Amino acid sequence: MLTIIGCGNLNRNDDAVGVIIAQHLQKYLAENPNSHVRVYDCGTAGMEVMFQARGSRQLIIIDASSTGSEPGAVFKVPGKELEALPEPSYNLHNFRWDNALAAGRKIFQNDFPKEVTVYLIEAANLDFGLELSPVVKHSADLVFEEITALISQNINF
């Protein structure tokens, strides 16, 4: 099973890129069904990422990044590089997908994906608004095409 999770905030322009790609992938799968692929829009809910990933063999997370790199740059990173145990807190709002990767592996052990890939797309604009920047939209299209190609190859999910 392949699980694909888009993360982000639809009200913060380019921060929505992961969610928008996930929505496009859901439409793609409605037209090209594949019983071995699940796609979720987890917004900013790290805890949901942890639970949706459970039971999958492979996991792809898509999100925006803000590292100071060239806007639209796409980083494809092994999840292991980004895992981070959460700081002790009573506030689950601060529990992000990087925390979900570390906590999910610790809690669910063999029932958590071993193969995790994270696509990060560098944002140009994280102000309040509903539009992707043209450069980020272009990168989103490229990531969408790469993932749909992977799905169509149907590599033993």
Provide a concise account of the structure shown.
The protein has 157 residues and is an alpha/beta fold. It is built from four helices and five strands; from the N terminus they run βαβαββαβα.
For the structure shown, list the relevant keywords.
Rossmann fold, 157 residues, 5 strands, alpha/beta
Strand content: 15-25%
Within CATH, the superfamily carries the name HybD-like
Secondary-structure element order, as H and E? EHEHEEHEH
Residues in helices, as a percent range: 25-40%
The strands making up the biggest β-sheet line up spatially as 2-1-3-5-4
Q: What is the total number of structural domains?
A: 1
How far apart are the first and last residues' alpha carbons, in Å?
4 Å
Q: Which segments are poorly predicted (pLDDT under 50) over 5 or more consecutive residues?
A: none
Largest sheet: 5 strands, mixed
Indicate the CATH topology: Rossmann fold
**Architecture in CATH?**
3-Layer(aba) Sandwich
CATH class: Alpha Beta
Instruction: Please tally the helical runs, counting DSSP H or I stretches of 4 or more residues.
Output: 4
The radius of gyration over CA amounts to: 15 Å
Number of strands: 5
Principal-axes shape call: globular
**Average predicted confidence as pLDDT:** 91
- Which structural class best describes the helix and strand composition? alpha/beta
